[in-house]
Write a structure and sequence with these properties.
Number of strands of chain B: 2
Structural class of chain A: mainly alpha
Largest interface: A-B, 66 and 77 residues
Helix content of chain B: over 70%
Shape of chain A: elongated
Distance between the termini of chain A: 73 Å
Order of helices and strands of chain A: HHHEHHHHHHHHEEH
Strand content of chain B: under 5%
Helix content of chain A: 55-70%
Strand order of the largest sheet of chain A: 1-3-2
Structural class of chain B: mainly alpha
Largest sheet of chain A: 3 strands, mixed
Oligomer: heterodimer
């Protein structure tokens, strides 16, 4: 820096000498030559000046970076670890809530075989006017009208309104995440993803969408070992994409209400339908359902009551 | 005007002298911040001029490099790009000509959409001092506590949802959840501001006593850069003075006036930096000897002087710009 400065000053002194000569000569050619020399020297000065300026800028930048680090490192969180400790409690409560939901989640409804803790009911419970018991078929073209009719006639049981409102609130809380996953998978509706999230892991974002197992490892319950690729811990989004892709939902193009209900019923199993029973997975908390559910794989208890809100009820509430 | 303001600040400070020591020196910090605001606002026109001058300088350097490259490749990334056009015996362009290529490294000097590098560094340095000052303000006035308390309320609401959810699943009566949650929030809330204020106070003390030397380093670097800042903003005038000005007394007089105006402007800039540094010293002194009327009065005086200085600078810059028109 010092040498550059000296050089620059020397050039300035040279220009002064040339200026003095310019003032003392009357020779036009010499004056022109002096002006040419000064112009050239001024460019040299500019070069030196730029070097000095950039040198100063480098010093300034280093000093500023130091100060920026001070500001960045300052403790502006006035509660220190206080809030994060509370967050930990909340995370644990959310996890607990998820576990409780998981305990209450409906067991798969096997389509064939299956046992009953008691004999199966002779006839399904009384249905809303104009509705027939579910048809024992897995053919969507035969079931479409039935799904629509059940959906249209669905009302929330008065004693369950508070619970349904809670489900709707939780669904809406997670909407942005559901939408993000849906966008990645060719437009699966967010409410559809949210409904599965509610049923399978009680809105717990720390669990796999497959079955609620913790995201810190691959799933250990059925389906086991998911996701097949990637390294734990997984993000909820990664796990959700795996679960929905595994079920082929990314290839679905028909997202009408009847088709969504068909897909969701298949997700839990068509076992209720094949016995001509209303599935609590779809209709729990509604006028269509009062009791009876599969309590374990293949075991049906006609007196057990689902404590989960049915997905059709959730969808209708959130879409209305 | 400046004296009245100084008097008011001194009186306000004097009124504060009997306050308890457990509260942050919010008033003192606010004065530092106000002084920095004035300094920063007054700096911007000079830095705007520096940007224009640095661009012109960068273009001159690019031309010089291209002229040199006519004789052969020069060192550096764009040293092979020659000037295309006639030159005289001194190597100056003597007719239409152009730099025959594009040098990406020169882009900041030809693009008007952002600051050239050195000007950017000056602004960044000033901004870092401003951010530090703002940090002092936040810690002193407790605005971060309000934000954090809002966050606490959100967390409490989430906690409520979680508890309600747990209650609905276990069949616990909803009526039992509300009081439990209210009790929790009620137990937590009165503590938060006290804890937060104490933490702010400690952090403010640390940031002032421990970190202010880093601010001093930036201020010193800004001050040490003043000569080259001056050389850059006056470079064109100096060239015109020693070029066109040789045969044109009117141009020479105008360029001399401009150079002297910049000398005054940059001088005020240096004085303001010195004053701001002194003000910071006084703030540190407040921590070392809290509640001393003399210290507070000195602090107030410094602050007022700095504000008055910034006003004078604004006027000088305005005059300079008017003269340039």
């Amino acid at each position: 820096m010092y040498v550059i400065e000296e050089l620059r000053h020397e050039l300035s002194r040279a220009i002064n000498t040339l200026r003095r000569r310019h003032a003392n000569t009357t020779d036009a050619a010499e004056r022109k030559a002096i002006r040419g020399s000064i112009e050239a020297l001024n460019r040299k000065i500019a070069v030196l000046n730029q070097a000095q300026l950039l040198d100063a800028a480098a010093t300034l930048t280093l000093a500023a970076q130091d100060l920026e680090r001070v500001v960045a490192a300052a403790r502006l969180g006035p509660f220190d670890g206080y809030l994060s400790a509370l967050e930990t409690h909340i995370d644990r409560l959310n996890h607990l809530s998820g576990s409780m939901h998981a305990q209450e989640s409906l067991a798969p409804a096997p389509e064939d075989g299956g046992e009953s803790t008691m004999r199966l009911p002779r006839a399904p419970r009384r249905l809303a006017r104009g509705l027939e018991p579910p048809r024992a078929s897995k053919d969507y073209t035969l079931l479409r009208a039935e799904y629509q009719a059940y959906y249209d006639a669905c009302t929330v049981r008065p004693e369950c309104r508070g619970n349904v409102a809670y489900y709707v609130k939780r669904l809406r809380n997670g909407r942005s995440l559901y939408e993000a996953v849906g966008r990645d998978l060719n437009g699966i509706p967010w409410a559809f993803i949210g409904a599965i999230h509610a049923m399978e892991c009680g809105f717990n974002f720390a669990g796999h969408l497959h079955n609620g197992d913790p995201l810190i490892a691959r799933t250990v319950q059925v389906p086991k070992g998911r996701p097949l690729t990637g390294t734990p811990p997984f993000t909820w989004r990664e796990s959700a994409i795996d679960a929905l892709t595994m079920k082929g939902f990314h290839d679905v193009r028909d997202w009408s209400v009847p088709h969504m209900l068909y897909l969701l019923e298949r997700y839990n199993g068509m076992g209720y339908r094949m016995r001509r029973l209303v599935s609590p997975y779809l209709w729990s908390f509604s006028n269509h359902y009062s009791r009876g559910k599969f309590v374990k794989d293949g075991i049906y208890d006609p007196h057990a009551v689902s404590k989960q809100c049915g997905v059709a009820v959730m969808l209708k509430a959130v879409m209305s | 005007m400046g004296e009245t303001r100084a008097l008011c600040v001194v009186m306000a400070c004097a009124a504060l002298c009997g306050c308890a020591t457990s509260s942050p020196p919010a008033r003192e910090v606010a004065m530092v911040a106000e002084a920095f605001g004035a300094l920063h606002a007054a700096s911007q026109p000079l830095l705007d001029d520096l940007a224009v001058a640095e661009r012109a300088q960068g273009q001159t350097v690019a031309l010089e490099r291209a002229l040199q490259a006519r004789a052969g490749t020069q060192p550096g990334p764009c040293g092979g790009i020659p000037y295309q056009g006639d030159t005289d015996e001194h190597g100056n362009p003597s007719g239409p000509g152009v730099i025959a290529g594009f040098c990406s490294g020169d882009a900041p000097y030809y693009s008007p959409i952002s600051d050239p590098p050195a000007t950017g560094a000056f602004r960044r340095a000033l901004r870092s001092v401003g951010d530090y000052t703002q940090l002092l303000v936040i810690l002193a006035d407790g605005s971060n506590i309000d934000a954090a308390q809002a966050q606490l309320h959100t967390l409490a609401a989430n906690l409520g949802s979680a508890l309600a959810s747990a209650g609905s699943m276990t069949g616990a009566p909803a009526a039992g959840v509300g009081p439990a949650l209210s009790g929790l929030v009620a137990a937590v809330e009165p503590l938060t501001r006290r804890v937060a204020t104490r933490n702010n106070l400690d952090e403010l003390r640390r940031v002032v006593l421990q970190e202010s030397p880093k601010v001093e380093t930036v201020i010193t670097a800004l001050r040490d850069s003043a000569p080259v800042l001056f050389d850059t903003v006056t470079e064109r005038s100096m060239a015109r003075l020693s070029g066109v000005g040789l045969d044109n007394a009117e141009v020479a007089a105008a360029e001399i006036a401009r150079i002297e105006a910049y000398r005054a402007t940059v001088s005020i800039y240096v004085v303001l930096l010195d004053q701001y540094r002194e003000l910071l010293h006084e703030l540190v002194a407040v921590y070392h000897t809290p509640q001393q009327p003399l210290t507070l009065a000195v602090l107030a005086q410094r602050s007022a002087e700095l504000s008055a200085g910034a006003d004078a600078w604004r006027r000088t810059i305005a005059n300079l710009r008017a003269a340039l028109r």
